[in-house]
Structure formats: structure tokens, C-alpha cells
């Protein structure tokens, strides 16, 4: 239910008892229609609003009601038509503006949503619900400055507003300012304790993952998993944290828990393959890579098989495979590093240097390539 559904736009209409029988019937249909909306009895609500429009085709309550009903059904384009029609007859109607903006947001037309919400704010510039929506929309169109300014304005009006705190966390996260994002999300934990939303916990964990402080992320993903044992983001976060801390056996348990629910997830299959490879279980690792490739071509599954080939001394097989990958994905630095390792393992140090130099000739600066080249040249 939207915020303006809760505001009950028929309250003013039904506050007085109309003397005209037709007006009384319209008021009763409005009242019933909005009650049906609250009860999610969408078809019955639409029938009430349609009956009103048969008597009064410009009735703002009926037009907004039909828009709200369509929005509840997920028919956002139909809802847009109803709200726009209302605004033709009743320019500036707050309920139509609010609904129209929410529809544009749902359709990912954030710039249009911003324009409508700003019209709404002309009538009510202290509406915190609308302000946070505008800030969210500016975040979606990656306008950091405007989004942050509006979130902070909300916090001035209502300290520790949860939507502003969460929004600021996402805003800073989107712009890779992970330490700042942590501050806002951790404030939510301070305020809500054990009742904090699971998404806040996984967001904090993800910040620590991005900062490569994997051990600090683990407790937050564990708390999220305690709330929801099959939560994908908590399972993925824990698996990735244990991968980052160099404990593949721990990560493997969580990769396999995801695969129990989603056995055809090729990204997770390759991660599980990597874990088995790190543990020296090459046959098991290859099985997971092959399972991923049976679903769809995956560069990292082929790369994983090439690494296994190198570790098993099959250097030329690995080299042939990696050269084919580079033809299809010439900007993937990991392929060049692995190719150089294969040449080095086969005693062809000069070819290893040439492989790394080939990447540099693309004009892409990469610290991992630079480090690998420096090591090869010193060897």
C-alpha cells in the first residue's frame, strides 16, 4: 500500500452528508472503493470507481482510485494513464502526482519521477516520504550531490530517519565510498539492534568485502544467515569472505549450500571449482568447471581448467586454451598472467615476458600485470 493510500483522499468528501442522492451514492462508492483497495480486493475497487465515472467522468477520487488499483496490479502504464487523466481535470492533485511519480520510478524512468515529485514538493516541501523518494531517484541517475543534499535535509528534519540513513549508505556504496557507507548502515544497527533489516547486515558485510577486510564481514553475514538460513546474499558473502581469508574448505560449504537451491548457477559452480582447486582436489574441481560449461560457455571455468592443466604439468594444453580465451576476451588481465605462469613453468621465460607485454600494449594500466612483469624480469 502506498503512502497516499493511507492518507484516504475520500475523508473530506465523506465528512459531510450530501443532500443530493446521486452525490451520496458517489460518496458511498468512493468509500467502498478505497476500502476494497486497502483489502486488496482490486477488481471490486475498480468496479466501484468505474461506476463513479459513469456518473462523473472527471471525478478525481475515481481516477486516482483506478490509478492506485492498476499500480497494485503492477500495471504501471495503465496507472500512468489514469493519473494523467486526473491531472488534466485537476492540475496539482497531490494523490495523482504521488502515484504518477511512483509509477515512473517502477518503470525505471527516474528523471520523469523526479520532475513529478518536485511538482508535488511545490505544494508540500516538508513531506519526508517524498523527499526520500526524490533522493532515491537522484541516486538512481547517479547525481551524487543532489541525492546527498536531499537525504541530509531529511536528517535535519528528522534525525536518524531510517530511509535517509539507508539511502546515504547505498549512495556512498554506489560511488565506492565504502567507509562512509559503513557509517550510515552501522548507525541503523545501533538504532535497531537485533531488529535491523537483514539487507542492512548484508550491506555492511559487502562493504567489508569491498575493503578486503573479510574477517570483519563474516559476523554480519552470520547474523543475516541466522535471520534467514537460505539467504543468497548471506551465503555468498560468507563464502567470498572465507575465500578472501584463504580458507577454501569453509567457503566450499557455503558455495554448495547455494548450489543445493540453484544447481545451474554457473558463477557459483566456478567458485566451487576454484575452492576444490585450491584444496588440491583437481578431479572434483574439473567436474564443477565442466558442469558450468555444460550450462553455458564461461571464461572462468575454462581458465580454471587451464590452471589445473598447468598444475598437472600439461603446460602446452593450458597455453593453447589460454590463447583461445585471449582472442575472445583480449582485455582480461587474468588470462595474460596465467599464460605467463604457464610459459614460466615450461621454462620459456621470454615468452612469459612477451605475454605480459602484449597486455601492456593494449594501453591499459594494470597493477597486477606490472607486478607480474617486474617479477618475471627479475627472475
Q: Could you characterize the architecture of this molecule?
A:
The chain is mostly helical. The protein has three domains: 123 residues, Tetratricopeptide repeat domain (Serine Threonine Protein Phosphatase 5, Tetratricopeptide repeat); 71 residues, Tetratricopeptide repeat domain (Serine Threonine Protein Phosphatase 5, Tetratricopeptide repeat); 99 residues, Alpha Horseshoe (Serine Threonine Protein Phosphatase 5, Tetratricopeptide repeat), CATH 1.25.40.10. It has 23 helices and no strands. Helix 4 packs antiparallel against helix 5 and helix 7 packs antiparallel against helix 8. The longest helix has 18 residues. It is elongated and about 100 Å long. The N and C termini lie far apart (67 Å). 41% of the residues are buried.
Average pLDDT metric? 93
At CATH level 2, the architecture of the largest domain is: Alpha Horseshoe
How many domains, as an integer?
3
- Shape estimate: elongated
What portion of the residues fall into strands of 2 or more residues?
under 5%
Helix content: over 70%
What CATH calls the topology of the largest domain is: Serine Threonine Protein Phosphatase 5, Tetratricopeptide repeat
User: What gap, in angstroms, lies between the N and C termini?
Assistant: 67 Å
Sheet/helix structural class: mainly alpha
- Count up the helices: 23
User: How many individual β-strands?
Assistant: 0
Can you tell me the CATH class of the largest domain?
Mainly Alpha
Uncertain regions: pLDDT < 50 for 5+ in a row? 1-17
Amino acid at each position: 500500500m502506498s503512502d497516499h493510500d493511507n492518507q484516504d483522499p475520500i475523508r473530506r468528501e465523506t465528512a459531510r452528508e450530501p443532500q443530493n442522492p446521486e452525490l451520496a451514492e458517489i460518496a458511498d462508492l468512493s468509500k467502498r472503493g478505497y476500502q476494497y483497495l486497502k483489502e486488496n480486493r482490486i477488481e471490486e475497487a475498480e468496479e466501484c470507481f468505474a461506476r463513479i465515472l459513469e456518473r462523473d467522468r472527471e471525478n478525481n477520487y475515481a481516477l486516482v482510485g483506478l490509478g492506485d488499483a492498476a499500480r497494485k496490479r503492477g500495471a504501471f502504464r495503465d496507472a500512468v494513464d489514469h493519473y494523467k487523466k486526473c491531472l488534466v481535470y485537476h492540475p496539482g492533485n497531490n494523490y495523482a502526482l504521488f502515484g504518477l511519480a511512483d509509477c515512473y520510478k517502477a518503470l525505471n524512468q527516474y528523471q520523469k519521477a523526479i520532475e513529478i515529485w518536485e511538482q508535488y514538493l511545490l505544494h508540500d516541501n516538508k513531506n519526508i516520504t517524498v523527499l526520500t523518494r526524490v533522493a532515491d531517484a537522484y541516486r538512481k541517475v547517479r547525481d551524487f550531490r543532489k541525492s546527498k543534499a536531499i537525504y541530509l535535509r531529511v536528517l535535519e528534519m528528522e534525525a536518524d530517519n531510517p530511509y535517509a540513513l539507508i539511502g546515504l549508505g547505498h549512495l556512498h556504496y554506489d560511488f565506492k565510498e565504502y567507509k562512509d557507507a559503513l557509517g550510515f548502515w552501522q548507525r541503523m544497527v545501533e538504532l535497531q539492534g537485533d531488529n535491523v533489516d537483514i539487507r542492512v547486515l548484508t550491506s555492511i558485510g559487502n562493504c567489508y568485502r569491498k575493503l578486503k577486510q573479510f574477517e570483519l564481514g563474516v559476523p554480519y553475514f552470520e547474523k543475516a544467515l541466522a535471520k534467514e538460513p537460505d539467504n543468497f546474499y548471506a551465503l555468498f558473502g560468507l563464502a567470498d569472505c572465507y575465500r578472501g581469508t584463504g580458507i577454501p574448505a569453509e567457503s566450499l560449504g557455503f558455495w554448495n549450500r547455494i548450489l543445493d537451491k540453484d544447481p545451474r548457477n554457473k558463477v557459483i559452480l566456478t567458485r566451487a571449482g576454484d575452492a576444490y582447486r585450491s584444496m588440491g582436489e583437481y578431479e572434483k574441481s574439473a567436474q564443477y568447471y565442466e558442469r558450468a560449461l555444460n550450462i553455458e560457455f564461461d571464461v572462468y571455468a575454462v581458465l580454471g581448467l587451464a590452471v589445473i592443466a598447468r598444475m598437472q604439468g600439461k603446460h602446452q594444453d593450458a597455453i593453447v586454451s589460454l590463447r583461445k580465451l585471449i582472442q575472445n576476451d583480449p582485455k582480461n588481465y587474468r588470462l595474460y598472467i596465467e599464460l605467463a605462469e604457464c610459459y614460466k613453468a615450461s621454462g620459456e621465460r621470454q615468452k612469459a615476458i612477451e605475454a605480459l607485454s602484449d597486455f601492456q600494449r593494449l594501453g591499459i594500466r594494470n597493477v597486477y600485470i606490472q607486478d607480474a612483469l617486474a617479477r618475471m624480469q627479475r627472475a
